[in-house]
Amino acid sequence: xxxxxxxxxxxxxxxxxxxxxxxxxxxxxxxxxxxxxxxxxxxxxxxxxxxxxxxxxxxxxxxxxxxxxxxxxxxxxxxxxxxxxxxxxxxxxxxxxxxxxxxxxxxxxxxxxxxxxxxxxxxxxxxxxxxxxxxxxxxxxxxxxxxxxxxxxxxxxxxxxxxxxxxxxxxxxxxxxxxxxxxxxxxxxxxxxxxxxxxxxxxxxxxxxxxxxxxxxxxxxxxxxxxxxxxxxxxxxxxxxxxxxxxxxxxxxxxxxxxxxxxxxxxxxxxxxxxxxxxxxxxxxxxxxxxxxxxxxxxxxxxxxxxxxxxxxxxxxxxxxxxxxxxxxxxxxxxxxxxxxxxxxxxxxxxxxxxxxxxxxxxxxxxxxxxxxxxxxxxxxxxxxxxxxxxxxxxxxxxxxxxxxxxxxxxxxxxxxxxxxxxxxxxxxxxxxxxxxxxxxxxxxxxxxxxxxxxxxxxxxxxxxxxxxxxxxxxxxxxxxxxxxxxxxxxxxxxxxxxxxxxxxxxxxxxxxxxxxxxxxxxxxxxxxxxxxxxxxxxxxxxxxxxxxxxxxxxxxxxxxxxxxxxxxxxxxxxxxxxxxxxxxxxxxxxxxxxxxxxxxxxxxxxxxxxxxxxxxxxxxxxxxxxxxxxxxxxxxxxxxxxx
Length: 644
Description:
This protein is an alpha+beta fold and 644 residues long.
């Protein structure tokens, strides 16, 4: 080994030792500054400003930089050689000479510069590491004595927050400085998180929540029910995130602390069918249909597939069969794509047959049942021979699209499948699926309305508030009675679905499908001239009615009553002068507002946080009052007209 190689090895030893010493001094600085902050908070009796929580990190960087600057001699081989010469004077500068790259190698000079790198660095490195270790032990002991094991662990994790300093200022108060650990459900594949001194806890339904703090004598209430508290050096309570917002109340003597449990629902996957882009009518059956869909999910996608339904016949002779292709597992991915091909020739489609295609995705929700997302439906229809036997004449009423008939049949199939699976599903899962069917039924009814009454539909799709038009449009064809029957049956079906009664809605849904079939097969109108104008003699019929009318007493709606109660409780809580008591009462208001007035609930969160942390709450209070005033104004204006 040459002299330069020995110097390089010595530099490697020194680099390792200096790195270890710098890390140890950084830890010692974090613990020492954290202990000093805890001591200052305890002396002053109050939490320090939030900016002080940055001091431990700054101290760690300064300490590590100082050690590297002072103890690291290895910026070049010549400096390392001088360092070795300083610790082993017997070399008599032979090592510095031998490590000079401009001089030729000499055996005699190499023998004179020979030394043991490990022996040279042993004493200075041991001294440096022992001093650093002593600093870590002393600062760690001080931090443990002042803040305990949990406090020292928080300091090392960089969590010397304002809440932990307030806890240090009140070491005997178990309602200060507690910690909540949230463990999401296993299916979500999310990591557990911790939050110190929370005012609210937002997590997925079914998440495990553990709240713990120092001391004892704490009573915990989940709404009105009392929870068992595990005692020891720290009090601990475990619970599960419920399906609805609930107040978690911590009591110690006459004092209390209210935490808002804010459940987050796992939404169903959002599915979009990108190909085919539109419905198609075919004269000849053949070719391949390329199907593609994109899926998005807030937590994770479990699986997805392409589903198509082949329907033939009409009315009593109607038959349908469903097939699943392109199935794929996504293993919790947030985004995914589905793709497959369908050979039309292999399906043996005949004239009048319909092929309906859609994409379906499921998430892995095991708490409230798997969420199911479906895309829009695309249809391929084989034209009948008699569709091209007439000339173009003055147009009659719009012909009902084939996709409307198929969509109603698919809604029936979904409702029947839900009734079969309902005994094994959770209530939340049943409600979610029924509401999805109700939304699709309302959307389909709006399409039929636009066909039946095109002149009474605004550009944005809303119906005039004056009510439905007469059965004959001025200057147009008479309204198809089957379409009007389908529209009325859909109204009844959507009404039952809105109250989650799928069994009661099915007869109306089947009647609507039958009416749509009849409308599709009805005779066309060939108009020789415009429709006769209907004239009403208004002066003759005015004031001829015998019914005088009578009004009944109106009882306030549940939503209006809840809004008034929330406004009353908010005014009472905001008027409390004690910030802690006001924050507790506002937290109870926020629990109810999460279900009734979500915008007000979102505005209350910064207000509660400002009260708990001792900041000026006036801006947050004004924002919350503004949200409440908007809700009052919307209630006074009343609900807008709808078509159902």
